[in-house]
Amino acid sequence: MDNIQSLPIKQTLEFPAQQDQRELWFLVLDGHPPARQKRILLEARAAGYLSGQDARIFINACGLGGA
Question: Looking at the whole model, is its pTM more than 0.90?
Answer without folding.
Answer: no
